[in-house]
Amino acid sequence: MPIEIPTLNFIALAPPLIVIGTALLVLLFDLAVTDKRVLGYLGLVGVVIAAGVSIAMGPRPATTFQAMAISDGYALFFNLVFLATAGLSILIAIDYLERHDLQRGEYYALLLFSASGMMLMAAATDLIVVFLGLEIMSVALYILAGFNWRQLASAEAAMKYFILGAFASAFFLYGAALTYGATGTTNLNQIGLWLSGGNSDPMALVGLGLLLAGFAFKVAAVPFQWWTPDVYQGAPTSVTAFMSVGAKGAGFAALIRVLRSGFGDSAYSADWALAAAVLAVLTMTFGNLAALPQKDVKRMLGYSSIAHAGYILVGVAAASESGVRGVLFYLLAYAFMNVGAFAVASALERRGEFSTTQRDYAGLSQREPLLAVAMTVFMLSLTGMPPLVGFWGKLFVFRAAVEAGMSWLAIVGVINSAVSAFYYLGVVVQMYMRAPAEYSPRLVGEESDAKKPAAVNLEVAIGTAVLLAMLLTVVLGLWPGPVASLVTMMPLG
Amino acid sequence: MIPLHWWLIVAAALFCIGLYGVLSRKNAIGVLMGIELMLNAVNVNLVAFWRYITPQVLTGQIFAIFVITVAAAEAAVGLAIIIAAYRRRDTVIVDELDIMRW
Amino acid sequence: MPVDQIVKTVVFVIFTVMTLGGGLGVVVSPRIFHSALFLVLSFAGVVGYYVLLDAGFLAAVQLLIYIGAIAILILFAIMLSRGLMAERQSQSNQQWWIAALVALLIFVVLAAVLWRVDWPVASQQALASPSNAISQEGSQLGRDLLGPYVIPFEVASVLLLVALIGAVILARETES
């Protein structure tokens, strides 16, 4: 029997392939290199190259890889979001792992594999590839969440994340199977063709609902958000920074493509838009209310990331081109401000401790003025204050909702942003209004030398991450034009 | 041939049995077994759809092969995570691993 | 009803008893070790399903991976965890009855919808000759995996690598 060699258009998947290749190189060099920080920088080089290739591919026409994946502007823009997140997280990890004595070469390889899974999810045009990308991302994140083997909390975070993640995957798969049964295909474009051809089938709707449940888990939307605070708090901070943006972004990347390519022209488009709107309201309200009383900053950021999933869902609910553009902009903004906030939190963690409470921030403006300024910028941007980048992200998604005739949704979003100001600004108040002397041991019987405020370990790599994130948050806030026009040039192919 | 509906009902039943296992088991390994049942239900669905709806194209079977691959990978990592947590705490009871509040 | 139809139905019922009965055993058995053995029974029932559905290759894969690898892995994990073997307390949490209600409710809804849908079943002619008729079963799958599905195939290998590395790190780390 003759075997026909398929035509393989590797160019279409060049960025994720570069990242996978870098991960393999990291594994290889891990055998020879004793200073594992070198591996972090090696990973960083791969990330930068992949980002450069993504940008270079931008103006070219989209190419497909055998109807399985596509290199449209949408996927390329998401590549930038994931690569920015991965790059900053690697910078954080280089010092963070060293300080906590957790340095391992595999860390960087797993982080890169996870990023490649995210990129595949954004590029996938077939449910099978979406699923495999999702699993590569998730399995690597399960392991990373449990990477801190000295802490029970980390092992527990890994276990919770794994069990609930695998549970969500089962729902996703059941949804994919029913969609396949109803339409006879797993290809998103063909599903879209079948549904827009006037076909309607209640089974496709059930399938879509189950698919949505699977994605809602990954992006931490209500009612699948319960795992978020525990996992975010228990995982090493460098991992939390990565997954808070990366996993959320990848979930939204695949979710939006499935909704728009697969179910966009169907009789169900009004159904899923309304469902997304309801989820958006519940998600942002829950996230903000739950974040209010939190004392642990990592946990507070965990709840607030639920709220941000809600704001992004507002853009999804708009079900329009401008909604998608808003989501893209929002996620890039979120990458800088949220990873930046986690970078500051990880810089403040003392050796042997794996979280920071509000008290660790007391009087930070006197101890570390630069760090305090950076944290203030991130907190204000997360609240949505102009002229920082977070403001534009919110503006674009809310405006898309208004254009789509969902003004009420935008109003709920604005009210929620106001609520979020309470807990974000609470950190700022701690840094500027409280004296460092107010610091007291958080555990009874804590060693006496711990009573004085901790010396901040601001190493080079973490410092670079904080500075880069802060600069981008401010600069993109003052000049949002270039990114905003980049977003409009990168349609869903 | 056996009607397609029978297969789908059986698969739905298996899925819900697995779901019950996930929701009711205290033991993490028990939860994992529930998840495996759910994945098997999905595969029965996929293969039945292939046989009855697109018998000329192997999509359903291929999807099922990938599901099995992923299930194996998840089981390996999941059991490693569970055993690592167990060794540190001497328990695999989900309820007892609650040093962090919900 | 022709004879082979009756035989098929009887075989289907037997495999269903294995699959669902094994599944129920997994979720209600008071000893976790017994649960794992019931899991093997349930997986074996699914092997039978695949044979009935003319998916011989998948039946072999199911046997090798689900029973040969996953179920055995779970059994090992249970046997390696001291205390789990002997344990004979209730394995269910307090909310088990809520879980049962939820599962039952979802089943009723799913079954009602599934039963009513008019599935686009292929013509009798197409049904009679599935693409992987026994003679060329494996080869068509192999062609598809290295043809249209080459990307998922390669991506799956990355996933297996990730799982391999992860399992090794997680297992090794307690030594340090």
Describe this structure in words.
The complex is a heterotrimer of chains A (493), B (102) and C (176). By secondary structure, chain A is mainly alpha-helical. Helix content of chain A is 72%, strand content 1%. Chain A contains 19 helices and two strands. Chain A has a two-stranded antiparallel ribbon with strand order 1-2. In chain A, strand 1 (64-65) and strand 2 form a beta hairpin. Chain A is globular. Chain B is mostly helical and 102 residues long. Chain B has one domain (4-96): Helix Hairpins (Orthogonal Bundle). Helix content of chain B is 75%, strand content 0%. Chain B is elongated, with a radius of gyration of 17 Å. The N and C termini of chain B lie far apart (50 Å). With 176 residues, chain C is mainly alpha-helical. Helix content of chain C is 74%, strand content 0%. Chain C starts with a helix and ends with a helix. The model of chain C has no long low-confidence stretch (mean pLDDT 85). At the B-C interface, helix 1, helix 2 and helix 3 of B face helix 1, helix 2, helix 3, helix 4 and helix 6 of C.
Total domains of chain A, how many? Answer: 1
Strand order of the largest sheet of chain A: 1-2
**How does CATH name the architecture of chain B?**
Orthogonal Bundle
Q: What fraction of residues of chain B sit in β-strands?
A: under 5%
The main sheet of chain B comes to:
none
CA gyration radius of chain A, whole angstroms = 22 Å
The percent range for helix content of chain B is: over 70%
Short structural description:
Chain A is 72% helix and 1% strand. Chain A has helices at 14-30, 37-57, 73-99, 105-123, 127-145, 152-183, 188-196, 202-219, 228-234, 237-262, 269-291, 297-318, 321-348, 364-367, 369-383, 389-403, 407-433, 460-478, 481-488; strands spanning 64-65, 69-70. Chain C has helices spanning 3-28, 32-52, 56-80, 96-116, 124-128, 137-146, 150-172.
Helix and strand layout, with pairings?
The complex is a heterotrimer of chains A (493), B (102) and C (176).
Chain A: H1 14-30, H2 37-57, E1 64-65, E2 69-70, H3 73-99, H4 105-123, H5 127-145, H6 152-183, H7 188-196, H8 202-219, H9 228-234, H10 237-262, H11 269-291, H12 297-318, H13 321-348, H14 364-367, H15 369-383, H16 389-403, H17 407-433, H18 460-478, H19 481-488
Antiparallel strand pairs in A: 1-2
Helix pairs in contact in A: 1-2, 1-4, 2-3, 2-4, 3-4, 3-10, 3-13, 3-18, 4-5, 4-10, 5-6, 5-10, 6-8, 6-9, 7-10, 8-10, 9-10, 9-12, 10-12, 10-13, 11-12, 11-17, 12-13, 12-16, 12-17, 13-15, 13-16, 13-18, 13-19, 15-17, 15-18, 16-17, 16-18
Chain B: H1 4-24, H2 28-52, H3 59-89
Helix pairs in contact in B: 1-2, 2-3
Chain C: H1 3-28, H2 32-52, H3 56-80, H4 96-116, H5 124-128, H6 137-146, H7 150-172
